[in-house]
Amino acid sequence: MTELLPIIQLGNPILRQKAKLIDNIEDENIQKLIDDLVATVSKSNGVGIAAPQVAESYRLFIVASHPNARYPNAPEMEPTAMINPRIIAHSSEVVKGWEGCLSVPGIRGLVPRYESIEIQYRDSHGKLQKQQLTDFVARIFQHEYDHLDGMVFLDRVESTLDLITEQEYQQQISKKNA
C-alpha cells in the first residue's frame, strides 16, 4: 500500500550525504519507495522529489513537472522515476531560474543551471533510458540530481541577493500573470 512519506528539512544530515547506487531495482522495498515518492511529490504539489528528501539515501528521484501555483508555466508530464541517473552531456548555455525545495520551505533562489542536458537513467523496470532534457524539466533534473550528491539549491545561488521568500515570490508571480 502506498504511503505519504515525511519530507526531511535542511539541517538533517541525510540531505548532505552522497546517496548509494541501487543494485537491485526489482527489490520490493525499492519499488515501494518509488510508489511512495510518486504519491508524496503529488500530494505535496512538488515537481520533483529525491529519495534523500524522505531520509532514504538512494540514487533515485521522481521528475513530475506540472503547472501549479509555484510554477504556473511548467510543462505537463507523467511522474517519472529516475534510478542511478547520470548527466552525460550538457549545453554551454547556463540560465538562471527561480527554484524552491520541499526540504527548504519558505525560500526561493535564483539558481544557474544548464539550459539543456543529455541524461541516462534506469526506469522503474530497470530499463536503461537516454533523453535530452531542456529548460524547466532540465532544471528539475539538475535540482534533484544535486540531492543525490548531498547538495541543495542554496549551494548554487551566487549571491544572497538572489534569495527571496516564498510569499514575496508568489506576490511577484501574481503581478506578472495579472
Would you spell out the secondary-structure blueprint of this structure?
Layout: H1 28-43, E1 48-50, E2 60-63, E3 80-90, E4 94-101, E5 104-114, E6 116-122, E7 128-134, H2 135-148, E8 163-165, H3 166-176
Antiparallel strand pairs: 1-2, 2-3, 3-6, 4-5, 5-8, 6-7
The main pleated sheet reads as:
5 strands, antiparallel
Number of strands: 8
**What's the helical proportion of residues?**
10-25%
Strands ordered across the widest β-sheet: 1-2-3-6-7
Question: Mean pLDDT, rounded to whole units?
Answer: 95
Return the domain count.
Answer: 1
- How much strand content do the residues show? 25-35%
Q: Give the CATH level 1 class.
A: Alpha Beta
CATH architecture: Alpha-Beta Complex
**Main structural class:** alpha+beta
Note poorly predicted spans. Answer: none
Oligomer: single chain
Element order, helices and strands? HEEEEEEEHEH
Using brief descriptors, characterize the structure shown:
178 residues, alpha+beta, Peptide Deformylase, five-stranded antiparallel β-sheet, three-stranded antiparallel β-sheet, 3 helices, 23% helix, globular, protein biosynthesis, metal ion binding, metal-binding, hydrolase, iron
